[in-house]
Specification:
The complex is a heterodimer. Chain A is built from 15 helices and 2 strands. Chain B is globular, with a radius of gyration of 26 Å. The chains are: A mainly alpha, B mainly alpha. Chain B: This is Multiple sugar transport system permease protein.
């Protein structure tokens, strides 16, 4: 922009030839800049085309074929999609995946409470923050292995701890009723530190003057929470809900490690686990692709809805 | 905790607007004091004591499974089954950690994970920061469209792409190599591009313009001016990315079949299946401990930067 305005301003004193030369030079400079800009962006753009756009297009076609991944692809139209609608395992896996998301509000409520506590002048806050955060950085595979052992009905840590308070714990991962809750508890435990950290930053960013003004008006602690804290941390809540739902829809690692067969009476199989199983164990690549696409579309729809709701609820104090 | 110190802080915080992050601001429970008009930031020691107690219980719950993991890894095979459980192994079996390196694929797993994580994050960071620089500071018609296009990639979950990607890589014979884990991600990370671009918006355009007028090449501007400016943002994103690649499980399990080519996460997951039948839980736990330790060390060293960058993640969205 700056270069063009400069040339226009000095036009009057320049001869035609000068102008022409200047324009040419600036055009050349622009071309050079465009070239470099394009070169700098090239890698991610190539990656986007080769590993996102192309596979997506291929997916759409593959989802309409009967195909084992090696042999020929037989075009069968929308048969995979009608099969999917009638497949009880698909619905069970979808239901399980949605069920796991119960952990999201539970985790967020605990995290916000922790963040409020940690925002006070409490001895050892840094220590607490670190301890609560360690599960977040630990590898999910290791954590899943550890918890699988911890959920062991006879010798596991969880039932040992429960027996201290006189509860005879179930054989968590072998029990259709308790397998999903077991996975939810583990997920909450693992994710707590991350959301606490985000909430803590948000809580500490709330201007203290708001609370002081509220106190002068005689507002109770609960009122201050609902009218000041909660609206002020709303962007973080939104961020966490969106990212947790996307991550939750892709739940796979802990399912595959802790319940390699999809759990007792298929009570833990998630959608991604079913897709993976169909594609790489049963070599039903066409069908698995159709399910994976449906998963992608569902995630997209849910995300768009959340953004809509968020816009409607947009709230700010000024 | 004196009243004077507190009110002084409250006042200075109100004036400064932002305030210092160290100071508590909120009483989550109604304060009982009737005549404490200025008690907005006054914290009751009793409430804090109760909260400290609750936080300590929570910390035990958070730490117990990990302590249990370390403790189990040092027990004898039989000690694992002792009731009531022993927290301090008797005797300590350090030999398990020798066995884990001698008898299993943990060492090659570490090597493979390092190859993938380091090559992806180091080269990917260069590509990402170059792209972020171009997107934020250089002129190119349609660059915002390109940015939106790249961002759209964040909306597509990996499971949706894994099957076609697998077929692509199997066609060129890359299955059972580390390449399918490296190539698609090494070309740049959208999340990193997004944050670096945001970060660069705080750098005045005039700086770049001035350097251009001085005749500096674009690579030179990037290297000597932009890179030092965005180094903190890069460092934070780099660490987060490294942890994500190191801990990845789904992509490696799809591509890697031979045990000696597998990354650490797949190795320990397979050990979990193999050695559980032999009741060798100490060995499994030792491998798990080993997979957690490197990241834990990185975290403890860079704790402040990591925490700041994560807090930033939330506020930028």
């Amino acid at each position: 922009m700056a270069t063009t305005t400069d040339t226009e301003q000095v036009t009057s004193t320049w001869t035609k030839a000068d102008q022409k030369a200047a324009r040419k030079r600036s055009a050349a400079l622009h071309r050079k800049e465009h070239g470099w800009a394009a070169a700098f962006m090239a890698a991610p753009v190539i990656g986007w085309v080769a590993f996102l756009l192309f596979p997506m297009g291929f997916s759409i076609y593959a989802s309409m074929t009967n195909w084992n991944g090696i042999g020929n692809m037989t075009f069968i139209g929308l048969d995979n999609y009608t099969r999917l609608v009638q497949d009880p395992y698909f619905w069970k896996a979808l239901w399980n995946t949605v069920f796991y998301m119960i952990g999201i509000p539970i985790g967020l409520a605990i995290s916000l409470a922790l963040a409020l506590a940690l925002s006070r002048k409490i001895r050892g806050r840094t220590f607490f923050r670190t301890v609560y955060y360690i599960p977040v950085i630990s590898s999910l595979a290791a954590i899943a292995i550890l918890w699988q052992w911890a959920y062991n009905g006879d010798f596991g840590l969880v039932n040992q701890a429960l027996s201290l308070v006189g509860i005879d714990g179930p054989n968590w991962l072998q029990d259709p009723t308790f397998a999903k809750p077991a996975l939810i508890i583990m997920a909450v435990w693992k994710g707590l530190g991350y959301s606490t950290l985000l909430y803590l930053a948000a809580v500490q960013a709330v201007p203290r003057s708001l609370y002081e003004a509220a106190s002068l008006d005689g507002a109770s602690g609960w009122k201050k929470f609902t009218k000041i804290t909660w609206p002020m941390v709303q962007p973080v809540t939104f961020f966490l809900v969106v990212t947790n739902i996307i991550a939750g829809s892709m739940i796979f690692t802990e399912i595959n490690i802790m319940t390699p067969t999809g759990g007792p009476s298929w009570s833990t199989a998630s959608l991604v686990w079913y897709v993976w199983n169909q594609a790489f164990r049963n070599l039903q690549m066409g069908y698995a692709t159709a399910m994976a696409l449906v998963l992608g579309i569902l995630v997209l729809i849910v995300t768009v809805i959340q953004f809509r709701i968020n816009r409607a609820n947009d709230f700010s104090i000024d | 905790m004196s009243l004077n110190a507190n009110t002084a802080r409250a006042a200075s915080g109100a004036i400064a607007g932002a305030g210092e992050p160290d100071h508590g601001r909120k009483a989550p429970r109604p304060t009982k004091g009737m005549f404490k008009k200025t008690g907005a930031t006054q914290e009751s020691p009793a409430v804090n004591a109760v909260l400290t107690f609750i936080l300590s219980i929570g910390a035990i719950v958070m730490a117990a499974p990990l302590v249990w993991m370390v403790s189990t890894s040092l027990k004898t095979k039989e000690g694992v089954y002792s009731l009531p459980p022993e927290w301090i192994p008797d005797p300590f079996v350090w030999d398990t950690y020798v066995r884990v390196f001698d008898d299993t694929y943990v060492l090659s797993g570490i090597k493979n994970s390092l190859i993938v994580a380091i090559s992806v994050t180091v080269i990917g960071t260069v590509f990402s920061s170059l792209a972020a620089f171009a997107l934020a500071k250089l002129r190119l018609p349609g660059k915002n469209a390109i940015f939106l296009m790249l961002l759209s990639g964040m909306m597509v979950p990996f499971p949706t792409l894994m099957i076609p990607q697998f077929v692509m890589f199997s066609k060129i014979g890359w299955v059972d190599t580390l390449l399918p884990l490296i190539v698609p991600v090494i070309l740049g990370n959208v999340i990193m591009i997004f944050f670096l671009r945001q970060y660069l918006h705080n750098v005045p355009d005039s700086l770049v313009e001035a350097a251009k007028i001085d005749g500096a090449s674009y690579l030179k501007i990037f290297w000597t001016m932009i890179l030092p400016l965005i180094r903190p943002a890069i460092a934070a994103q780099f660490i987060l990315w490294f942890m994500a690649v190191w801990n990845d499980y789904l992509a490696p399990i799809i591509y890697l079949n031979s045990p000696e080519k597998q990354t650490l996460q797949v190795v320990i997951a397979n050990m979990n299946v193999q050695y559980a039948t032999q009741r060798d839980y100490p060995l499994i736990m030792a491998a798990s401990v080993i997979s957690v330790i490197p990241i834990l060390i990185v975290f403890l060293i860079f704790q402040r930067q990591i925490i700041e960058s994560i807090a930033l993640t939330g506020s930028k969205t």
